[in-house]
Amino acid sequence: MDKITISDWLMMFVVLAGPIIAVQLTRYLDSRNEIQGRKLQIFKTLMATRAYTISWHHVEALNSIDLEFNQKNKKEKQVIEAWKQYLDHLGLDKMDPDQWAIRRVDLFVELLHKMAIVLKYDFDKTHIKNSSYAPRAHGDIENEQGNMRKMAIELLEGKRVLPLYVTNLNGQGEQAAIPEPKGD
Question: Does residue 184 sit within a domain?
């Protein structure tokens, strides 16, 4: 019987350990790609909804930032810090509304820019700030819906009355208004 050499031992180790190492490496790479994919999805959602900052998808993406970005990574920590600054600003209510809105946009653009750097997108701040499209009609519809909700709530709370007009009374086409209730 021949003597087993070191190279024979190494060959047996490689043959036995190779598949195990390959599986572990594949699992590691899949996990890393999944984590990167979630970060990318957050960024894509925020970019796609940057003109609609009150959409559910936008808010959900914002709230996922500190779950998916890693504080131990220097660049990702900058994303989390930018998110914290933006979140703190969103909670301010004692600031002039015009100044608040300007600062909100600046902080949001900074957040997206930090994310773009981490995810290797070549977007400058000007592009992020100025390259979204939001039809004016969407804003008009949103305002109208808000007004209708407000008026409906006021009506249900008794703070608003609903004027009623009866037409075609007794089939003669006369219009009679129902008087508004008198105050206390």
Answer: no
* pLDDT above 90 for 156: yes
Of 113, 147, 132, 122, nearest to 49 by C-alpha is 132
pTM of the predicted model as reported, rounded to 2 decimal places? 0.70
Pair 130, 149 in one domain: no
- Whether 116 and 123 have beta carbons less than 8 Å apart is answered as yes
